[in-house]
Every structure is written in structure tokens, then in C-alpha cells.
Backbone:
């Protein structure tokens, strides 16, 4: 039934219920979860968040890895991420704020330490969003 690391294939017959117990090996890679908010702290839906790998050689080009869009609560997630590599995220939001922050994953993948790299914010007038209902 197992085809590759942590990928299991199966099929279900008509009116069949399958129960499975999946045993997976310990995962040492990390995960990046975050929330994108505006200047007032309101979550931003549909912001584009791009994950890039920082080059090992100083002055090298950023390597695009993947991207995600935030959900209705402004949340995004990337993973699994390799330990001891340096990453950057870049965020695009319509007329709100563009930021570029670096993050580093610990040896065991257990922690991410934000490290400010470069920030540029195009500030607009910050007005509370209207209350619905």
C-alpha cells in the first residue's frame, strides 16, 4: 500500500468503509505559519505570500519556492521546510503593505526565529473596517 514517504494510495469499493492507521516516521523538517494583517490589525484575505530561499552565497539571487494565498482569517502556511536553510517571504496586498522578512529554522525544525531583513510599507490612511450587522 505504501508508495513513497508518507504517501499512501488506496481505493474504496461501493458501500465500503475503510479504516486505516498510518504510522509515519518522525518528521524533523519545520513549518512556517503566519497571519497577514493590515495596519489596524485586521486580517487580510487573499494576500499573496511567496516563499523564497535565500542564497548561500552573499549577493546571490533569491530562489522562488512556492506561494500561497491567505484565507479569510489572513492565515497562510508553508512546509515542510528544510532545517539550516534561510528563507524569505514576500507579501503582496492591494494598497496596504509590502514587507520582506527573513526567517531561520532551528536545527531540529522546532523553531523559527524572525530576523528583520528589509521592510517597506506604503502606508495608507488607517481606518477601522465597518462593523457588519
Residues:
Amino acid at each position: 500500500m505504501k508508495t513513497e514517504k508518507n504517501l499512501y494510495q488506496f481505493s474504496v469499493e461501493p458501500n465500503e468503509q475503510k479504516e486505516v492507521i498510518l504510522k509515519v516516521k518522525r518528521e524533523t523538517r519545520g513549518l512556517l505559519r503566519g497571519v497577514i494583517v493590515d495596519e489596524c490589525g485586521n486580517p487580510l484575505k487573499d494576500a499573496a505570500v511567496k516563499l523564497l530561499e535565500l542564497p548561500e552565497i552573499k549577493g546571490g539571487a533569491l530562489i522562488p519556492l512556492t506561494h500561497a494565498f491567505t484565507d479569510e482569517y489572513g492565515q497562510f502556511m508553508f512546509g515542510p521546510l528544510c532545517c539550516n536553510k534561510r528563507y524569505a517571504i514576500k507579501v503582496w496586498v492591494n494598497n496596504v503593505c509590502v514587507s520582506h522578512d527573513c526567517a531561520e529554522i532551528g536545527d531540529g525544525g522546532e523553531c523559527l526565529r524572525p530576523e528583520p531583513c528589509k521592510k517597506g510599507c506604503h502606508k495608507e490612511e488607517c481606518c477601522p473596517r465597518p462593523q457588519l450587522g
